[in-house]
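JOB MANIFEST
job_type = single_chain_structure
chain_count = 1
residues = 269
[input]
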Amino acid sequence: MKLTMLGTGNALVTECYNTCFVISDGDKNFLVDGGGGSGILRQLKHAGFDWKDMREFFLTHKHINHFTGVLWLVRMICQYMNQREYDGTAKIYRYAEVLRQLEDIAKTLLQPKETRFIGDRLFFVPVADGEVVNVIGRATTFFDIRSTKTKQFGFAMDIGGAQKLTCCGDEPCNDFGKPYAENAAWLLHEAFCLYSQADIFSTPTARIIRRLRTPANLPRLFTSKICCCITPKTKTLPHGRNSTARRDKNISAGQFMCPTIWKRWHFEV
């Protein structure tokens, strides 16, 4: 299996793409979020993917820097299905509200000859908190992270060998995500900004970072073998990611990494 980062930035970045990534197992691909627009096609291409090989998708939440890239892929899939250039089916997982919004927007903007494939070959699959779904052949548990900003889900995927990969959504891990994050072989965790920038970005999320970094809290969160910590609002790209890894790698029970775009990791199971 492999994990490929397509983007690591927040909604307003100009030097990198919005946070999204692909989990691959052989020829099966699972795209998590789509970034803010048609740039998802470029990110997939530069990472060595054919967008047509994306067959399963997950939207963590409805913010446009995650949502509209998936909308572009809905357009491409429907258009190419109509042209008989996209075989088989595709699935998009998300909680029901966002799927309704995605379908409504698609049916408003696309032509009926294209949207006729929604529900026929392109399936919008609602998931509930704690629900287990087979994704790229792997048992995957979706969970509500109880975000205070907007409803948002993460997931924990069984990657074999009694190991799991956990995505905590687009926010720092909290107590609701803790059962899924603990002892994960791979933990994708939102850091929002460098710890040294917490005062610059004086927001509730930045304050969470300050609290999480206390000695009492960190050991119980970062028990994973590899913690992949995404810092989308750093002002020191690309060097900020390296400084974060040097500064904080001692807090993790395992390896602590801060990814850049098109970074790919292979992991054996």
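[summary]
DSSP finds eight helices and 14 strands in the chain.
Confidence is low (pLDDT under 50) at residues 204-222, 239-252.
exit_status = 0
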